[in-house]
Amino acid sequence: MSKNVQAKVKHVPLRTCVACRTTGAKRGLVRIVRTPQGGVEVDPTGKAAGRGAYLCRRRQCWQEALKKEGLARALRVKLWDADRDKLKAFAEELGEE
């Protein structure tokens, strides 16, 4: 007897960049999280507790998200200067892609 065998396809979670609105795999984007204490941090694991938003790994997207308040709107928080400085420092480490 022949059995109908199908290969199992693994589900890949998709997320949208808040700056350029492109959709990509969750692992290909960087998660920024609003912590339960109200702070904003880069979440390299993608599993930190809090409200999250995603940005591409392009410096241009980070600059646009910070300039146009898209990140603050997505996280539903006011970005303070210290938060902006941390995010800008992380963006400087990214490539131009």
Tell me what the structure shows.
With 97 residues, the chain is of the alpha+beta class. It has one domain (14-93): YlxR-like (Hypothetical Cytosolic Protein, Chain: A). It has 3 helices and 5 strands. The chain has helices at residues 59-67, 70-75, 81-93, and strands at residues 14-16, 23-25, 30-34, 40-43, 51-55. It has a 3-stranded antiparallel β-sheet with strand order 4-3-5. Strands 1-2 form a two-stranded antiparallel ribbon. A hairpin with a 5-residue loop joins strand 3 (30-34) and strand 4. The longest helix has 13 residues, at 81-93. The N and C termini lie far apart (53 Å). The model has no long low-confidence stretch (mean pLDDT 90).
Which characteristics define this entry?
97 residues, alpha+beta, Hypothetical Cytosolic Protein, Chain: A, three-stranded antiparallel sheet, two-stranded antiparallel ribbon, 5 strands, 21% strand, elongated
How would you classify the helix and strand content by structural class? alpha+beta
Number of strands: 5
The CATH homologous superfamily is named YlxR-like
Provide a count of the helices.
3
CATH class category: Alpha Beta
Q: What is the radius of gyration?
A: 17 Å
**CATH architecture annotation:** 2-Layer Sandwich
Which regions are unreliable across 5 or more consecutive residues at pLDDT < 50?
A: none
In helices, the fraction of residues equals 25-40%
Q: Which fold name corresponds to the CATH topology?
A: Hypothetical Cytosolic Protein, Chain: A
Oligomeric category: single chain
